[in-house]
Amino acid sequence: MKHHSPSFEAIKPDMGSSFTCLYFPKNENIKSHVWHYHPEIELIFVCGGSGKRQIGSNISYFSEGDLILIGSNLPHCGMTNENTNNDYEVVVQFSRDFLGSELWNAPEMSRIFQMLETAKSGIVFGDEVKKMLQDKIKAMCEASYLDKLVKLIEILDVLSTSSDYKILNAGKYYLQTQKEDNDRINLIFNHVKDNFKNQISLEEVAGLATMTVPSFCRYFKKITNKTFTQFVNEYRITHSLKLLAEQPMSITEICFESGFNNFSYFNKTFKEHTKQSPSQYRKEFSNILA
Known about the structure:
The protein is 44% helix and 17% strand. The chain is an alpha+beta fold and 290 residues long. The chain has two domains: 161 residues, Sandwich (Jelly Rolls), CATH 2.60.120.10; 111 residues, Orthogonal Bundle (Arc Repressor Mutant, subunit A), CATH 1.10.10.60. The strands form three sheets. It has a six-stranded antiparallel β-sheet, covered by helices on one side. A three-stranded antiparallel β-sheet has the order 6-5-8, covered by helices on one side. Strands 1-3 form a two-stranded parallel sheet.
């Protein structure tokens, strides 16, 4: 099987602008599934739909759209594909000093500056702020020149004052390491993404990383703040959440389709991650949509 290192994405600002603002109609962001990173900060808004996201070592499920702020060089993939059923997606990318380094010394910008620092671990915003900013984000895509810039600053200001958010990677996941380390850990992430439905042994992934098993376990925990088993289980549980919400499959079928080969272990792991059983989650999700 062919494995890919994370793709470095070179980003060029829009003509006549200091940043990039991309609008993708349904299913048109065909590169969103590619594991990649870039020095630019990225704000992603997904209008409607549901799917899986992977930001750093965090794998999670979203529904009713998504609003995420991703810091510089934080590897990510996911969001939208042909199964997401979102209305559209907006991707805004800007360098840390896109308006000059002195800007952040202004007291009016201190909250935004702090938020961008926090975004190095990835931030997902909740439904309240997502709904509040939906029209403004879409209007930014349709604005020109100075008006587009003003709208971006306004959006960042609203986000920086919101308490409706969650940090995706606890601790310091963001890779302040050598490129070799970045490539190695992302090779492992890609391997899990491609093979999570199968059994993945520590010997297998340690071999991919050209390490002994004990060395790999220490290395992976140091980089991601979680064990390899925790990481794989998180990926499988996230996949099961999507299936429970979207597919008319039995819970037993979902267990095996998500890579678990033991139903009792699946139930135990699911409860550890969600604080409820798979059947409770499915019922609760159905009640929300009813």
